[in-house]
C-alpha cells in the first residue's frame, strides 16, 4: 500500500479518536466519584454549537474552545443541581439532558447551518515534523490531540497518586464513609461532574472546529454514547481509554477509506461499524462479571444524601 | 432559609400534581422564550399551544401524532417500571417500519384483506427482533441495555437508509431515496374521512388498556413491578430477572414496531429515508411524564403531540425555529424530575429551635 495513504489513515484515526478521548476522560472522573452522567451526548452537542458559533462570530478558535468548555459546564451544572441537590434519578436526568441538548443545540445553531470556519491549525513542529514517516504521523496534529493525550496522563496520575484522587475514589466507592470522615461528598461530585461537562463540551467543539469545521444538527451521531461505552471498556481506568478511543477512531475512519481500500460494501454498512464495534466490545468486557464488579465504582448511579 | 425534610411517606397528591407543575413551568418558560424571540407572548402562546386544538383537522393531527408516542411510551413505561431501560425505541420503530414496508412492497398489487394484518404482524416482529438484541446481551452477558439499544438505533437508521437508497428505491421515483407508494390494501383505514388520523390510534388505546390490565391484574405484571421497586425483595421471592428483561423488551419492541407500521402504512404511505422524527426518544419523556402509568402515558402523549403540532404551526405562522419543539420537550422532563423532589421531600421553613443552641455556644465558647 502507498505509505502516504497509510499515513493519512493513521493520522485521521487520531482525529476521530480525540473527541472520544476528551469526553470519556471527563466522564471517567465523574463516574469514579459515583455519578453516572448519561447526558454526554447532549453536552457534546451544545459544546459543538457553542464553540462553532463563537469562532464563526469572530472569536479566535481558542475562544471558541473556551466557550465550548463553558457551555459544557453549564449543561453539567444543570445535571448536577438536579441529581446532586434535588436528588433526581441519574438515568432519567441524564436522558433528559441529552434530549434537552439535542433541542437546545438545534435551536442555537439554526442560523449556523451551512457555514464553515477554518479548521484548527495543525502544528508543524520544526525539524520533527519533517522526519520521514514519523514526522507526519506524530508531529503534525492540531494542539488538541496532544492536549487530550496529556489530559489522560494527568487524570491517571491525579486519580492514582494524589490526595484529590484518593478523595474522588473514596467518594465513589463509599460516600457515606467518606462523609463520616468529613469529606465534602457533594462538593467533590459537583466538581467532577463540572470537569466532565467541560471536557465533553471540548470534545463536541473538536467535532465542529477540527474534524468537520461546520455545524450540522445532531452531528455527534452517538459519539457521546460511544464515549460512555468507552469508560466501561476501559474498566474505569484512564489507560484503557486511549486504547479504546483509538480503536474506535480506526473503525470510524474505515468508513471514509472503505472504497479506497477496495471494500465493495455499501457505505451505510461501513458507517454501522463503530456502533456494532461498540456493542461487540461491551459484550466482551461485560461477559465476565468479575471484571465489572472489581472495577466499577461501588456507588455509581446511586444518589447520596447526608442525614 | 428553608430546608428540605423527608416526608414520612411519598406524597400521592404530589405524585399526581408534579406532571401538572412541570407542564405549567414549561408553559411559563415557553412564554419567556417567546418574549425573548421578540414575539408577543400571549399571541405566540395561543398559536403554539391552543390553536392546534381548535379545529377538527387540528384535533385529527393531534391524535395522529399521539399514536406512535402512546405505542412507544406504553412499552417503555412497562420496562422502566421493572428497571429495564430500553432507550432504543426509535430503532425498533424503524425496524418495524422496514419489516412492514417489505411486506407491503412484496405484495404490491395484491388487493387482499390479509395484507394489512400481515404488515402489522411483520412490524411487531421486526421491532421485537431489534429489541431482542439488547435483551439477549443483557441477560446472557450482563451488557448495559441502555448503550446497546441506543447503538442499534443508529444501525437501524443506516439500514433503512441503505434500503431506500438501494434495493427498495422506487425505480420511477426520480432517484429520490424512497420506496414506491404502498397500495390501498397496505394502507391503514382512516378513522374519519378528511382527517389523517387512522386505525392505529384506537390500536394504541387498546395497547394502553392492555398494559394497564397487565400491570394491575396479572401475576407477571406484579412480578415486574416488584423487581423495579424492590429488586432485593424480588430476588428473595425468586422472581426471575431475565424473564422481566425479556418481557419488557418484547412488549416495548412489538409496540414500537407497530408504531412504525402506523407511520409507513399511515401518513407516509411509503418507506422514506427517515420514518420518525424521534418519536422513540420523545416517548421516553412521555413515559416519565405519564408517571409510567398506561393511562398517564396517553395524556402525556397528547401533551407531547401538542408540542410537535404547535412547533409546526409556530414555524409557519410566527417563523419560529422548529427546534423549539425539542427544547420544550427537554425542559418538560427537567421540570418533572425537579418537581418529583416534592414527592419524597417537603419544604420546611427553617424555624429557630437553633436559638437556645446558639445561646449555649455563646455562653460556653471554649467547651470544645
Structural description of this entry:
The complex is a heterodimer of chains A (307) and B (368). Chain A has helices spanning 3-32, 40-56, 61-85, 90-108, 134-138, 143-161, 163-173, 175-180, 185-211, 223-233, 238-257, 267-286, 289-295. With 307 residues, chain A is mainly α. Chain A has a single domain (3-295), classed as Orthogonal Bundle (ABC transporter involved in vitamin B12 uptake, BtuC). Chain A is globular. The mean pLDDT of chain A is 88. Chain B has one domain: ABC transporter involved in vitamin B12 uptake, BtuC, CATH 1.10.3470. Helix content of chain B is 70%, strand content 3%. Chain B has helices at residues 12-36, 41-50, 56-81, 89-106, 115-141, 145-165, 200-217, 219-229, 231-236, 241-268, 279-289, 294-318, 324-339, 341-344, 354-363, and strands spanning 2-6, 345-349. A two-stranded antiparallel ribbon of chain B has the order 1-2. In chain B, α4 runs antiparallel to α5, α11 runs parallel beside α13 (324-339) and α12 packs antiparallel against α13 (324-339). Chain B is globular, with a radius of gyration of 24 Å. Chain B starts with a strand and ends in a 5-residue tail after the last helix. Classes of the chains: A mainly alpha (307), B mainly alpha (368). Chain B: The chain crosses the membrane at residues 12-36, 56-80, 87-107, 113-137, 146-164, 197-215, 278-311, 323-343. Chain B: It is found in: Cell membrane. Chain B: This is ABC transporter permease. Chain B: Keywords: Cell membrane, Membrane, Transmembrane, Transmembrane helix.
Separation of the first and last Cα atoms of chain B: 28 Å
How many individual helices of chain B? 15
Order of helices and strands of chain A: HHHHHHHHHHHHH
Q: Name the CATH architecture of chain B.
A: Orthogonal Bundle
**Fraction of residues of chain A in helices?**
over 70%
What is the structural class of chain B?
A: mainly alpha
CATH fold node name of chain B: ABC transporter involved in vitamin B12 uptake, BtuC
